[in-house]
Structure prediction request, 316 residues.
Amino acid sequence: MIVALAGGVGGAKMAHGLQAALPPGALTTIVNTADDFDLYGLRICPDLDTVMYTLAGIADPVNGWGVAGDSRNTLDAIARYGEHPWFLLGDQDFATHILRTERLRAGTPLSAVTAELAASLGIPGRILPMTDDRVATLIDTPSGRLEFQEYFVARRQSDDVLGVVFAGIDEATANAGVLDAIRDAKTIVVAPSNPIVSVGPILATPGIRAALERTEAPIVAVSPIVGGRALKGPAAQMLATLGHEVSALGVARLYASLVDGMVIDAADRELTAEIERLGPRVLVTETVMGDEADRRRLAAEVLEFAGSLALHRMAV
Ligand code: FO1
Prediction:
């Protein structure tokens, strides 16, 4: 079994490539839930849904989140009552949130609800929330502490990020399925998601980092920073204002103690030696995932690289 750790759109694309490159059911994706929040009385889980829609082949191809071709009648009707719809939810997306919220209120854990929804959409592998407990990313900015989606969507990531807090993380318990998957994995892939607010909460969930340190599987991370820029989202500004180098080397420094391999883009080839001095071996390739063929090709290369690291481990 192959395990991917993923946040939003970048993580979903990597998981999609892995799903395409692997036999049906061989992929387990562990997903960040610290972006989750309540809106209109509904539980919204953006990263879980982005991964789920992408793996089901129904994600909006332009935004990467939401359902392709979705209408916005519900949101338009909400706006008629004078509300300002700042978080764009499509009608089909609403169906996911309505059913999820109903099941959660009836006492079903998020992991079980996610499994039901994903199975209904025909996804062959498993999608596991990092925890069934509530964790919320809070962003410290010069204007004060913001809830994650207020920072990310309402204020368009325009605030400097001075600090990041995962409220509730110390009391959260990693899903047993997550820890078992990490233990039994053949390879673990850290997707090119934001290392601070997407992968960060997964690694901070009690029990997960220790499970990763114990697993015999090679762990390979794909850098979300290419040529000093994030392909999507605020990772670059966030790394900079938090005092990290905005480069694949900066990402490697964050992951060096955990991973056996780093996959970096050909544009960052000159960082190879410096990253390898930190410990991980490096694979240089084209990491920008334009279309589905790119996703599958990158996934196959990442898996082959991980396989070579496993052989290297056995030899020493
Ligand atoms: N991102 C935006 O930038 N604007 C939106 O209006 C928006 C709506 C949205 C609806 C459902 C969903 O699952 C995701 C949505 N996202 C939106 C993306 C989301 O905020 C981010 O992808 C993650 O939280 C960061 O990984």
The pocket of FO1 is lined by residues 7-9, 35, 46-47, 49-50, 65-66, 87-89, 93, 149, 152-153, 198 (CB under 6 Å). The two ends are 24 Å apart (CA to CA). The longest strand covers residues 136-141.
